[in-house]
Every structure is written in structure tokens, then in C-alpha cells.
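Note to self: keep these together.
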Amino acid sequence: MLRFWFDRRVRSAVWQVAILAAFLAAIAWLTANTLDNLARRGIQTGFGFLTRPARFPISEGFLPYEPTQTYLRAFAVGLLNTIYVAVLAIAAAMVIGFVIGLARRSLNPLVRGVAASFVEAMRNTPLVVQLLFWYAVLTIGLPSPRAALEPAPGLFLSLRGLFFPWPILSGWAIPAWIGLAAVALSVGAARFGRTAGRVPIPPPRVIAIGGLGLAAASGWAVGASVSFDRPALQGFNFTGGATLTPEFMALMLGLVLYTSAFIGEIVRSGIDAVPKGQWEAARSLGLREPRILWLVILPQAVRLMVPPMTSQFLNVVKNTTLALAVGYPDFASVMATTINQTGQAIEGVLILMAVYLVISLSVSALMNRYNKRIMLVTR
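Structure:
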């Protein structure tokens, strides 16, 4: 027996088993102690509360919801709100961050200074403070609905939110399916062309244009139409059209501006990381600076940007939980209300952790797959 103990592999296995056993014992003790304390206080455990009526309103969401519906339905509404905000914030922050990154490299000292000041202000201020600032601006600094600002015809901005016309489509179901099928066929043709190493016949662009033309012709044939539901002041608020609430706008402004500052630095550093010889070689071919940036530098810089950009995307997903500060009903806000009503904090936090873990791992998997597609393959 002593001979086995002097074997390094045996000792390593014994220590690992001992540490794992200690960890599992600690988890078992914590679980038993928690269940005992909950039983003494008369607090129910389990996930049966998910099928009970939620009995609290949700101010906005994509799914129809009534307070008489279950907690599970309320969670679905909050989850869709979270995904919607995260996707929009990532897309907008990418665009603004790219512009800021280019401005940080501008030869104009004023443009460069403004971009640098924006980056420093956003990165060195807590996000929750920025959210509260934008919420105060939108709810205190804007006029009442009767004195709403009208920056464009049919567009009204007041402390109740931004109201704008919304299109109403009639008879576009069949044309929409035809258009989607055309786009899917063109994407499939493009992938086939890349795999086969030749341009398919007909080319993907011809398939897409032809399919969209067929969709438009079918829409005309079935009498499809587009009308607009326009907002109008009635009483103390606007009715009709679509609305962006102050809570949603404050959350979006905070997330987008905060994240765009970090993305701007990623873009700037990615471009600067490309060897200067690439610029010089492109200039020697007679290319102008904008074409050098788009055709030579950015394709190489993107490979360097993707890993830190993935971290920023994950931060956006996790930062949506700060929606609670401005009253936007995201998943974390709905879960907080549920915990306050039911008292089942452990189950609620476990659901919250599991949902954000799945979302974060999904974003990470998509970005890692994209990173593998564009990375250079070396021996």
C-alpha cells in the first residue's frame, strides 16, 4: 500500500477524490440546512409556483399578458423583453462604436478629442448612474403630452415616451413567404458556391432579386396594401401608432452609449494592431486611404476584434439586469417581483442564473463559431 502512495498519479487521484468528496459534502450540508430552515419558517419549496396566477401587471411586452395568467407566462414576457433589448443594444453599439473607433484615429484634433472625451466619460462612469441620468432627463426634462415636441410630422416626444406612426400590413402573408424563400435559396446557393468553388447558375444575387420581384408581383396581384396607424392626442396622452416608453429609451441609451465606448476602443486597438507595413504596401499599389481601410486593414483587424467583442456582447446581456433601476420589465425585474410575492428566493435565483447562463453560453458559442470561420489557419 505504501508503494502506491509514492506513485504521483495515485496521490493525485486520491487528492482529487478527497477534494470532490469534501465539495459534495459541503453542498449536501448547505442544501439540508437550507431546507430545514425553510421548513421551520413555513416556506414552501419547489417550482410549483410557476403554474399559479402571477397577479401583477407587466407594463410592456411582446406577448399578450394578463395578471391572471401564470408566473411562467410572466417569465416568458420578461425573457422576450431581455432578448429584444440585448439584440438592439448590441446592434446599435456596434455601429456607434465603429464610428467612435475611427474618430479616435482621426487626424483632426477636434474629432479625436471629442471621441476620446466620450470614451473616457462613458467608461469611467457606472452604468447604473448613466441609466438613472437618462431616465431623469426623459421623465423630468421633457414636456407633458399636451406640449409634446414634434421633431417630424407624426412624431411626438413627451415625458410619456416617443410616439410614432406604425405600418399596418394587409394581405402580405403570401408575398412575405415568397420573399423569405427567395432569400433562403440565395443564401443556400452562395454557400454551395463557396463549397464547390464555382459560381452557381443562376447566381445568388439573381435568385434574390427574382424572388423579391415575384413577391412584389404576388402582393400586387392579391391586393396587398400598407397603411399607417398614426398617434393622436386624446385626453392626457397619445393613442394609436407605436410607443417607446421612457423606461425603454433610458435603458437603451445607457446600454448603447456605455457599450459603444468599449467597442470603440476595441475597434481602434484592432486597427492599430495591424502592421503598418500593410498600409505602406497598399499605398504602394495606389490605393486611397478609405479603400485601404475597408479592403486591407479591416479584414485583418476583425480577426483581432472578435474575442474582446464577444466579452462586450456578454456584458450587454448581463447588464440588462440593471433595467430594474429604471423600471423596465425585463426578465430580472419580473423575477424580482415574483420573489417578493412568493418568497421563494432560492428557486427564483436558480431560474435567473440558469436563464442568463443559457443566453450567455449561446452568444459565446455563436461568436466562437464565427471566430473559427475567420481565423487564419496555420500549420
